[in-house]
Amino acid sequence: MAILLLLMGVMLPVQEMIGCTSMIVSGRVSASGKPLLWKHRDTGTEHNFVERVSRPGEYAYVALFNGGDSLLREAWMGMNDRGFAIMNTASYNLAPDTAKVKDREGIVMSRALAVCRTVEDFSTLLDTLPKPLGVQANFGVIDAEGDGAYFETDDYTYKIYKLQDSETGVLIRTNFSLSGNDTDGMGYIRYDNARYLTQQAVAGHSLTPAHFTELCSRSFYHSMLEKDCAWDTTVRWVVDQDFIPRYSSSASIVIEGCLPGEFDNNYIMWTTLGYPPVSHVEKVTIDEVPRALRPTAEGWRAPACNNAIEFKRKAFPVQRGSGKRYIDMDYLRAKSNDECDLSFKNYKMHYQINKSVQNK
Q1: Which is it for the CA torsion 207, 243, 282, 22, positive or negative?
Q2: Distance between CA 61 and CA 57 in Å, rounded?
Q3: Scanning 104, 113, 276, 298, which has the fewest C-beta atoms within 10 Å of its C-beta?
Q4: Does pTM surpass 0.85?
């Protein structure tokens, strides 16, 4: 039985387990003309859910929370009723974490959703919050005016990379910052994966939310191997290393903004909970969160996430020794033929179209 070896006996570092892949898309390269904000989340917290928050004196918002966060304290991606949206990726090549205060990215994003309306507002928030911030992150934001930016942020400082300055119309971040040193950081291969999987659509000004939730977050394309391992039918077992979806993946979300001057609480948060290759996409608005995404299951967990995790266990069936690092691609290929799993079938369709274009 053929095995694709991406690891040569090397243990994954702990920090690799909490990586993410993300992109900000200008309306000038999206199919709808609307900006897009994408985050494929990887985390040590397997369960997450979506909920609406409305508190006196603050903007209402919907956001992604860790399972069990009954106080709705830490938002890990979301949008508010003023057209401001935010997400983050951890960065591992900025200044070292402050020993006393760290891992506060979710708290910062919760506050931003509650008080920010524009990209500039977020800059002001970072300036005025008490220091040290307790963050080492690339914060990605968009607003109803069509602006977008990454804020590469450490405990005391940040550097802004504006979407309007991007020649391609997109900005990508994984787990390193362009303003950080060039020897540390994580996610360089995933960065190239995301760039490769979107380059045709960027050039054709045809990026859609589905391109992220149903292609990038379900693709096992590996930029160093220059192949998508999901569709190499000679291989069953693949080592879980440097793909966009990984065992630690817990969600893939795209926030679709508005056309310039047309904001009317019409943002959409296209949401996939759990392990994206075996999950489904649900539509979230500022006023409506599907019950399957809300914390309606025991332990403040979402039913949709619970279901996806059950399927993920089948994709990683070997639990003894280092077996949990191996993906059963035969199982995932079979899922692509499951009539109930339309999202994965759509991914297969996107892949085949993308491959045919590349071969021309």
Answers
A1: negative
A2: 13
A3: 298
A4: yes
